[in-house]
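User: I'll paste a sequence; please echo it back and then give the predicted structure.

Assistant: Echoing your sequence first, then the prediction.
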Amino acid sequence: MNIGIIGAGFIGGALARPLALLGHRITIANSRGPHTLGAVAAQTGARPATIEQAVHGQELVIVSIPQKAVPGLPKALFGGLPVELPVIDTGNYPLKANKP
């Protein structure tokens, strides 16, 4: 399966390696560009790419960036893609601390 991951941090990087070991073709992107993903690629077997390449032509997309960064993704990033394309969001929503 072709899987694109947007976000190469703790969660995105942690997902890339086992998915690649299972035989999936992983494309990974971050906000700084593919030239910054050499170490992640070497550790995980993922192919460094642009954000657009991590989405287009994939069978599954995982968005693994901080929730506050989602509005900064290109507005038309998912435009023209099949409506049945699965997109998984691993984002964590900030929780307010309970105050006594």
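The chain has three helices and five strands. The domain at 2-72+84-89 is CATH 3.40.50.720 (Rossmann fold).
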